[in-house]
Structures are given as C-alpha cells and as structure tokens.
Amino acid sequence: MTEMIERVARALALCAGGKICGPGQSVASRELGWKGDGEHFAKYVEAHWQEHITAAQFAIEAMREPTAEMLIAARDWSLHKFGKPIGNDAAIGCWQAMLDAAPVSPAHQ
C-alpha cells in the first residue's frame, strides 16, 4: 500500500465517522461514547481507516482520466510557470504517472 492510498482511506474514515446517526450524534461519538471533537475523531480514524482501503483504491482509479478543466489548469500553470503551455498528452501522461505512484491494482504497479 502507498502513502496516498492511506491518506485517502483516512479521509474516508473521517467522513464516515462524522456521519450523523441520531440527534446531534456522529457515528464516531456513538461508537466511542463522546461528543465528537478533533482528538476523538482522530482516534476513530486510527481505529477504522483500514476498512476504507478498497474505497480509496476505487477513488484513485476513478481519477485516472483528468477532466477538461484539469487539462486547462495544467496548460495555464505551465504557461505561467515556464512561458509555454503543456500539451494535453503530456499533462495526461504526467497526471497518470503521479496516480500510478499510488498503485490501485496489479495492472498499475
């Protein structure tokens, strides 16, 4: 597993722990018996992030094809930073190489 998959899994666990499950109660506060705050949510995430690894892998895989807006942003950034725009093929290749560094399946390792 890579650092990025763990980061995404932890973010998903934080989201899951923050879901409201009753009047003023989150999943995390119901499970751990307290009113949720940053420290307690961190404990919830630590206990549950590994349950979200598969979802994290699917989320990263879904991002493999950049949107048109992302390609425009890459072109504009390159133009501003280096004085010439990056082409779509180069931007897509760079983006996918970065995602490949967070392998999500044997096909991308």
How many strands in all?
2
Q: Give the overall form.
A: elongated
Q: Which bin fits the share of residues in helices?
A: 55-70%
Mean pLDDT over the residues = 84
**What is the helix/strand order?**
HEEHHHHH
Going across the biggest sheet, name each strand in turn. 1-2
Structure description:
The chain is mainly α and 109 residues long. The protein has two domains: 1-62, no CATH class; 64-109. The protein contains six helices and two strands; from the N terminus they run αββααααα. It has helices spanning 3-17, 27-32, 38-48, 53-62, 68-82, 88-100; strands spanning 20-22, 25-26. Strands 1-2 form a two-stranded antiparallel ribbon. Helix 1 crosses helix 3 (38-48) and helix 1 (3-17) packs across helix 4 (53-62). The model has no long low-confidence stretch (mean pLDDT 84).
